[in-house]
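Can you give me the bound-state structure? Components:
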Amino acid sequence: GAGVSQSPSNKVTEKGKDVELRCDPISGHTALYWYRQSLGQGLEFLIYFQGNSAPDKSGLPSDRFSAERTGGSVSTLTIQRTQQEDSAVYLCASSLAGFGNTIYFGEGSWLTVV
Amino acid sequence: EDQVTQSPEALRLQEGESSSLNCSYTVSGLRGLFWYRQDPGKGPEFLFTLYSAGEEKEKERLKATLTKKESFLHITAPKPEDSATYLCAVQAWTGANSKLTFGKGITLSVRP
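Here's the bound-state model for the whole set.
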């Protein structure tokens, strides 16, 4: 596709359930980022993938959060045993490798934990 | 630790009333300062990247400027369709991770 694609757009889940959020980056973009945006807060970095390098997981808030990227393209963010404080918009972004390149965002996955 | 502070938190303008949005930053070494626009329920939309102090970029009614400590987004004769949240972010030289560190954003409302 032309842009970063995320699914689902909206997800309502019960506390304690696991959820998976998918990101399909722009074709040819080797860098992929996950961010979280809570109500009234700025974007919080979660994890960064670049090519075949080990991902930078320094932003993951707890061990309930994990992410993988298969074949250098599609990425999945998994949240296990969801809590109400996990409710937020999860944004995926991608860019060409290197610094200074434009980082393009998807529309986000809105997660509500009830 | 890289930090970005945006002010004011919210700004209400009359159509045609020019103003500026401020982004102050502290970073170990700046690789780029990014401005994004975000509409409600949407992902951030890229506006500009500035790389060095003194640089300026323009797009329609928007002009972004950069100094060693802050960036300004000047809005000239705004229209209601300019209403949105404007996000500022920095990309630093430290490490191999090209992540952006964001401010909390400025919510702009332009009244007709």
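A couple of observations. Chain B touches chain A through 27 residues (CB under 8 Å). Chain B has a mean pLDDT of 95.
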